[in-house]
Amino acid sequence: MTKSTTRLISVLGEKRALHLQFIKYLFCGGITFVVDVVVFFLMAWLFFPSLGTDDPFGSVIGMFGGEIRAVSRDVLLRNYVINKIAAFLVSNTVAYITNVFFVFSGGRHERGKEMGLFYLLSSISFLVFTWLSRMLIGRFGWNVSLSYFFVFGLAMIANFSMRKKLVFKG
Question: Is the pTM of this model over 0.70?
Fold first, then answer.
């Protein structure tokens, strides 16, 4: 192996240094984010419409010849939650796997309890931040994309803290 490959393997395996841990968490969060975005926006476009033509993703889809199905505000808000749930289930599984392999050290709890706590805390975070998104969209008129990305950033910071302190060894 080359020296740089050996160093990369060493950095990926290091789970104690907080700065490396957070950088890897951001990278794994990026992977999780991409999975979440793909699942959410495909669902919002193709299965449970929750994009408006004024939404940035709706505009992009329209530019490429895709059609945005208009729905009432109530249906949009309901479908938004359905799409968030589907995206959460897929992306949270990706998050758990990447967190275990690259970011945190296990051992605070046995594996089943660790996974249960991970999903419990993620579910609480999901509920709080989905409620916040609905409020931003419904009460303050934010578009779906802006609300989605803003809340995702807040959730990432909250989840790192909870996972580090309550789920994993460190």
Answer: yes
